[in-house]
Amino acid sequence: MATVTDWIQHLTTDVDTATEGIQVAGQVYPMVGSEMWWVLAGIVFWLAWTFSTAAGEDEEQGKLARKKHGANDYKKNIAEW
Amino acid sequence: MTNELTALTTIFTEFYYWMTVVLMFLIHVGFCMYEVGASRYKHHQHTLMKNTMLIPLVTITWFFFGWWIYWAFPTGPGIAPSIMTESTGLVLGGGFGANELANATNALMAVNLNDHIMGVFWAAFLLFSWTAASIVSGAVIERITTFAFGILAIAIGSVFWTIDAAWGWHFDGWMLKILGYHDAYASGVIHAVCGGFALGILAVLGPRIGKFTSSGEPRNIGPRNPWLVCIGLFLIYTGFWGFYAACNIPIFDLGPEYGMEGVTFFTATNIYVTPTTLSGITMNFLLSLAGGLLAGYWISKGDPFWTYSGGLAGIIAASAGNDLYHPMQSLIIAGVGTVIAYKLHYWVERKFKIDDAVGAVAVHGYAGVVGLIICGFVLWGYPSSGYGVGSMWVGTDYAPINPLGMIIGAIIMFGVLGFLPGWILAKILHAAGKLRIPRDVELAGLDYNIMEQAQKDERAVASSNR
Description:
The structure holds two protein chains of two kinds. Helices cover 46% and strands 0% of the residues of chain A. By secondary structure, chain A is mainly α. The two termini of chain A are 52 Å apart. Chain B has a single domain (14-449), classed as Ammonium transporter fold.
């Protein structure tokens, strides 16, 4: 799981011997190589959120619209905490 | 980084962009305050949520594809060859500044010990994207659904503004080469495009109930809380310092960049990698703010809403050329842009029955367009890039800045990438019945249920004695 288990070893391991100086592996996050799956998971999360909240908004506004409140009715609901 | 000077330069650049992000965050705080202050009591909380939720929506889509679009589209595609790939196709590979690095799955789009710039540069552009969506948000308050706004925010914040940035706000953009387009601090690429996009939506969305009399005369609605609007706009001004700084590259050696043998010239540059100074643009920013405030106060006869908006319109009008203008030029251009934006706002409102609740189309759209056109005349003949000077319409080199190119650029920004996509998307959402909230909800107030519940809670708490 862990990409780095020893910082000293990581920072002294040359991944590109053709280049002058020590070239360390830059990617240090867990599960290097699985980026595509994480991005896909993010996209699924985003789309699910969109559909779910859209449905919730429709339902909430449909209920409120059916009550046919007037333009000034909200004034009786002003709280004075 | 094994060289101390390289390390210092890199870490300074990293910190510089990070600071711009922090400052630009205030733009969003300001927009939220401004919108809530402009909305009526019964819509406050939904207005706030609508603007707030664009933050996560634009952020994740900017990560998925917005940043990729910026680096893929400078050639059009198919309009002018890239100086990186020498092809007119999408830019899909290469070193930093090319596209394989800017896609969401690349190793640099994460913590990477070999890179200190990608994340902060990505974030600086993301904050521009929030601003883009937030500009639109104010215009449509009190009657758009949160769902529709979310779609439109993603469209402007992660697609259309980033296409225009690739075209006209990129050292390799085709609009520089073909047209001689110049827009250093985004009069067009942020403000005009968003103003146009908002106008396209408003044309379909329609006015708030009660905005116009039966004979078509406009009525004034609000702002309900002028003080909150004032503080909001002050915060937007404050955030603009970060916006301006983020449009620059803080330190760059132009000698080797321009291929000048033996020449070393360290300077700040604008986004086109042409030289300017943070010091100079600071003067221009302040003088354009002053010009806008003076003109806004004068034309509106001291109306606070328009005086503050005038300050913003002034900055926006002068922004296209604020990397090169004299401060007095910035002052005058800002004043002219503000007066035209104010006049156009009321003319369009009466003529086309457009209800722009916060004047966003005027302040960002009209002022941005005016700024682009004026820039074409004032900077006529300046090179649009340091990578070479050519002539208009050719595309293999960079055309000089000129009025015709800037007028065409303004049409592309406001009309082609702004108004048209906004109008089409709004039409689609309207056809699907998803654009506007039900009439009875608009009358009752979006917050009716929340307020009713709060009232019940208050009564319950007040009647409780333990």
